[in-house]
Amino acid sequence: MATIEIKNVSLTYRVLKNKTGSLKELFRDLLHRKVRVQNYVALKDVSFTVNSGEVIAIIGKNGAGKSTLLKILAQVLPPTKGKAKVTGSIAPMIELGAGFHPEMTGAENVLFYSTLMGRDMNKTKARTAAIGEWAGVTDHMDFPLRTFSSGMVARLAFATATDETADVLLIDEVLSVGDADFQLKSSARMSELIKKGAAVVLVSHDMNAVRKLASKAIWLENGVVKMSGPAKKVVAAYEKQ
């Protein structure tokens, strides 16, 4: 049974085209039925499955729909059409640090972020010091997050998200976080989680990482699947364009 099952998934945004300068003008246009709305198709009829212990890469240019697809998998966005079924716990590594608050300390953010992922607070409390140490930010854990550099925030978010083994990992370019040593360290942890049976969806512009980590790949173009199949074959076609 597949851990991730995406069947004919589409997502359409409704975009307001009125160029109004204020809410008052917008309400006036609403009253006079002058509001112009355009549908923007971000994804159209995307289908694939990912089994436990399998890595699938989503590739494509910026705006192709890759991050939108990850947000559907993370249950942040509901699809307009189709079925998106994810079985088990999810560790979403999308826009690392997006679930953090700048006025909370590093330790408080670890607890807050873990709670958002549905983890046990008492267990997380016992792991907070180890998470900070793994991220290399031990000396800053009692300081507000606004005092952290962007790299420190990303490392702490990555360490928190991967501290427990999840059934599903959603990865958006996070393997490029930090310096070379941390990238090696994070890649090793990712490999460890994959070996433990996590189903992984990887979004990356790094084709070497895709070839190394993924067994299958999906090439998205303007929200549509242009090609899918063995990762090396899809990457080779993508690089020839």
Features:
single chain, 241 residues, alpha/beta, Rossmann fold, six-stranded mixed sheet, three-stranded antiparallel sheet, 8 helices
Could you walk me through the main structural features you see in this protein, from its secondary elements to its overall organization?
It is a single chain. Helix content is 37%, strand content 27%. With 241 residues, the chain is of the alpha/beta class. The protein has a single domain, classed as Rossmann fold (3-Layer(aba) Sandwich), CATH 3.40.50.300. It has a six-stranded mixed beta sheet, sandwiched between helices. Strands 2-1-4 form a three-stranded antiparallel beta sheet. β8 (216-221) and β9 (224-230) form a beta hairpin. α4 crosses α5 (150-161). The mean pLDDT is 86.
Q: How would you concisely characterize the structure shown here?
A:
With 241 residues, the protein is of the alpha/beta class. The protein is built from eight helices and nine strands. Helix 6 links the parallel strand 6 and strand 7.
